[in-house]
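Regression test case RT-17, inverse folding.

Input:
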């Protein structure tokens, strides 16, 4: 039997085709606005340059030295506009080059502007997941890994929970409709844990009269 031409093609955002029994529950990208303002803090950078311009220019303007004020603050304004523009570009590229995927078995994070990287997080490695929502409905979903599983903070950034350097936590950043995505992830993890508990739960083995006495409990396969 011949296979279709795309049988070995990986879906977008995934490093390889999904194995049998695994399917995508959700896939999306972070919001460029959230990456730019909440991760790269472009607002604080812009405010810093505005403060410098006011500090240097306001006294001259108050004395009527408009031309001198323009000459003095001109380089600062140009540098500030360039810095804000560069951060905005990096934020847009970061969002554009990032794909988050939730399947019924794992979380996959594919990111990297120049050197794409893929992080696979099977549900068995996940200890907990949280949600931090913002006013616009977007949110961050940090993922806490079980003890003994660690990913370097430098390799994760900017897809890492801030200030958790000693025990880095991967994080789905600036996810639109984060509440719905968190629900999907929670249900998928719960379903996996339920299946594992059922597979590991003991079952009572019946014994016929006169037969050799079997063990009372046997693990279900």
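Golden output:
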């Amino acid at each position: 039997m011949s296979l279709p031409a795309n049988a070995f093609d990986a879906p977008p955002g995934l490093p390889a085709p999904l194995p049998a029994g695994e399917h995508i529950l959700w896939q999306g990208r972070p919001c460029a606005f959230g990456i730019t303002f909440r991760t790269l803090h472009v607002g604080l950078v812009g405010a810093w340059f505005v403060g410098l311009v006011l500090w240097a220019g306001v006294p001259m303007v108050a004395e009527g030295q408009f031309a001198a004020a323009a000459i003095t603050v001109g380089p600062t304004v140009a540098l500030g506009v360039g810095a804000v523009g560069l951060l905005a570009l990096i934020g847009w590229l970061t969002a554009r080059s990032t794909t988050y995927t939730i399947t019924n078995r794992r979380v996959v994070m594919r990111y990297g502007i120049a050197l794409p990287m893929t992080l696979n997080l099977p549900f068995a490695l996940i200890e907990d997941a949280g949600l931090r929502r913002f006013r616009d409905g977007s949110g961050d979903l940090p993922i806490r890994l079980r003890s003994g599983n660690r990913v370097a903070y430098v390799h994760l950034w900017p897809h890492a929970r801030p200030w958790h350097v000693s025990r880095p936590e991967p994080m789905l950043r600036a996810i639109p409709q984060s509440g719905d995505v968190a629900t999907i992830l929670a249900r998928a993890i719960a379903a996996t844990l339920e299946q594992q508990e059922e597979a590991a739960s003991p079952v009572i083995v019946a014994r016929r009269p006169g037969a050799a006495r079997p063990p009372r409990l046997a693990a279900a396969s």
